[in-house]
Amino acid sequence: PAAGAFAFRKAGAARRRAGGAVQGRQRWRSDGRALQKLPVHMGLVVTEEEPSYADMASLVVWCMAVGISYVSVYDHNGIFKRNNSRLMDEILKQQQELLGLDCSKYTMEFANQDKADQVLNCQSALKVLSPEDGKADIVKAAQNFCQLVAQQQRTYTDLDVNVLDNLLSSTNGFPDPDLVLKFGPVDSTLGFLPWHIRLTEIISLPSHLNISYEDFFSALHHYAACEQRWGK
What we know:
Its main location: endoplasmic reticulum. The protein is α/β, with parallel strands linked by helices.
C-alpha cells in the first residue's frame, strides 16, 4: 500500500514547556504513558539509499523507552540485515548512553541475532528484516503447505489465515504491525511484510537521518489521535 502522507511538524510550545524540566529518559517514559494508544508492534522502514546505523539505533532505543513491545527494522536493500551485528552493537551502545542507569528497565531481545544473551528481563523484541522476509517468505510458506498436503499431513481445506500466519517464519512470535514509520521520498513500503500490513497505519517522514526525538514523538502522537475504522 502507498504510505499515507503526514504533515511533519515539530512539537508545539506547550509540549516543550511541559517537558522542559524533565530529563530525557523520565520524559520518554511519561510520554509513552500519556498517549491515548501506543503501537504494540512498530515497523521502521527506510527507503533511502544510505541508511544510518546511529539514527536507526536511536529510533529503536526510543521505541524501547516509550514502551513499544515489538520493533521491526527494514530497508529495501537488506543493508541492515546483512550488517546485523553492526546495528546491534550501535543499539547496545546507545542503550547505555541514552538510558544510563535505567538501561536494565528497557532491555531488548535481538530476535534474529546471537546477542540475545546480552540482555535480561526483555521488555522489547527486535527483528531486522529484508525483502526476502516479504514475498519470498509467503512463497516459501505456500511451498511448505503444499508439501504437507502431498505428505497427507494436511488437506487443502485446512488453509486459512491462521495457518498461513503460522507458516511464515519472518515474523514468528510477532503480532502484525500497528504502525509503520516510512522514511524517505518513495511513496511505497517497498516490500515490507505485504501479508501483515493490511490494517497497519503508515506514516511517512522525510528522512531518518538526524531525526530528533520530537519528530519521533510527533509521529506517535499522530498515530494515537487517528481513528481506525477497520474498513467500516
